[in-house]
């Protein structure tokens, strides 16, 4: 399998339009790389591609990566798009793919209901873009030779659907991870996960490659930095650090591991930070836009 990171950042990207934190300032001044909102492309042959999550930045991401360019007058190498939740940073890019070119759209029924309940997504013509509801634990072909399976991870409903009582430990169709198999390899894409439970750990145990939620370094990062009032877990994201963070919880897996969906405040974005050094010493890669990875 071949992977192309279209967007390494969490919602808002880097720099975020309204943020003057150190990372955003450094990105504007080109001291550290800018990055788009979370999206990952996968292919078996480098010619046919599937996109995992349709970022609001998808037009620019496709422009920046020649692998995504049309090969004839009206064409795309993208055969399918798969959604892992209904968050704006994962579905808004569909509106940039409305120009009557066919592809398949895969998601759980609950995520597809989010699209159906908002008529703006009717602009993505269903006669051209077929919506395929996928049950959990059901294998399906994302493209020829590439099989996918969705599985539940702890999470929550999208921000715009939250009520007064918000649960971040929901297990169901609203937040899923993706298991990919092709050419004898197994890879996982989990850009949002509130907790690495024993069930999640068991699910990931056969991985050759994992792309995992790297939103925040620690749980109260945004509160301490003055950029927000919510903890990471309140937003549905397990922190990287700490005794119950993702590095410790996933340390026993043999897979090659990459953090993706990285928030603009995360100190691992600074090349000389002790946090980045710790991540790398722990055997993790840190995703960046345009990066190609094989599994």
Structure write-up:
This protein has 295 residues and is α/β, with parallel strands linked by helices. The chain has one domain (2-294): Ribonuclease Z/Hydroxyacylglutathione hydrolase-like (Metallo-beta-lactamase, Chain A), CATH 3.60.15.10. It is 17% helix and 24% strand. It has eight helices and 14 strands. It has helices spanning 22-28, 58-64, 88-91, 109-116, 198-203, 221-225, 246-249, 274-281, and strands at 2-7, 39-43, 49-52, 78-82, 103-107, 129-133, 140-143, 146-152, 176-182, 185-190, 209-213, 256-260, 284-286, 292-294. The strands form two sheets. The chain has a seven-stranded mixed beta sheet with strand order 6-5-4-3-2-1-14. It is globular, with a radius of gyration of 18 Å. The mean pLDDT is 96.
Question: Key terms for this structure?
Answer:
24% strand; Metallo-beta-lactamase, Chain A; 8 helices; 17% helix; 295 residues; alpha/beta; 7-stranded mixed beta sheet
By DSSP, the count of extended strands is 14
The fourth-level CATH homologous superfamily is Ribonuclease Z/Hydroxyacylglutathione hydrolase-like
Text of the CATH class: Alpha Beta
Please state the CA-atom Rg, rounded to the nearest Å.
Answer: 18 Å
Which structural class best describes the helix and strand composition? alpha/beta
Portion in strands: 15-25%
Main β-sheet, spatial strand arrangement: 6-5-4-3-2-1-14
Shape: globular
Distance between the termini: 5 Å
Helix content: 10-25%
Average pLDDT, all residues? 96
Question: Which fold name is given in CATH as the topology?
Answer: Metallo-beta-lactamase, Chain A
Low-confidence stretches: none
Order of helices and strands: EHEEHEHEHEEEEEHEHHEHEE
- Tell me the CATH architecture: 4-Layer Sandwich
């Amino acid at each position: 399998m071949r992977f192309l990171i279209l967007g390494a950042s969490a919602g808002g990207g880097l720099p975020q339009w309204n943020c003057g934190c150190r990372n955003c300032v450094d990105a504007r001044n080109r001291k550290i790389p800018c990055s788009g909102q979370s999206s990952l492309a996968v292919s078996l042959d480098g010619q046919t591609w599937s996109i995992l999550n349709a970022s609001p930045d998808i037009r620019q991401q496709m422009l920046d990566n020649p692998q995504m360019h049309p090969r004839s007058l009206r064409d795309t190498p993208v055969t399918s798009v798969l959604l892992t939740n209904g968050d704006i940073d994962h579905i808004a890019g569909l509106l940039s793919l409305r120009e009557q070119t066919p592809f398949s759209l895969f998601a759980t029924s609950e995520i597809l209901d989010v699209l159906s309940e908002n008529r703006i997504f009717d602009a993505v013509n269903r006669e051209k873009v077929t919506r395929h509801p996928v049950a959990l634990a059901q294998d399906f072909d994302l493209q020829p030779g590439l099989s996918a399976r969705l599985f539940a991870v702890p999470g929550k409903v999208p921000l715009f659907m939250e009520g007064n009582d918000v649960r971040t430990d929901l297990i169901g169709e609203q937040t899923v991870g993706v298991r990919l198999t092709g050419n004898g390899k197994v890879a996982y894409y989990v850009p949002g996960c509130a907790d690495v439970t024993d069930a999640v750990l068991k699910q990931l145990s056969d991985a050759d490659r994992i792309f995992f939620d790297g939103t925040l370094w620690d749980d109260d990062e945004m509160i301490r930095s003055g950029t927000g009032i919510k903890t990471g877990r309140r937003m549905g994201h397990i922190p990287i650090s700490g005794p119950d963070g993702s590095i410790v919880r996933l340390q026993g897996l043999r897979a090659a591991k990459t953090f993706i969906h990285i928030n603009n405040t995360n100190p691992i974005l600074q090349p000389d930070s002790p946090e980045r050094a710790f991540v790398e010493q722990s055997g993790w890669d840190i995703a960046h836009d345009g990066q190609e990875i094989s599994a």
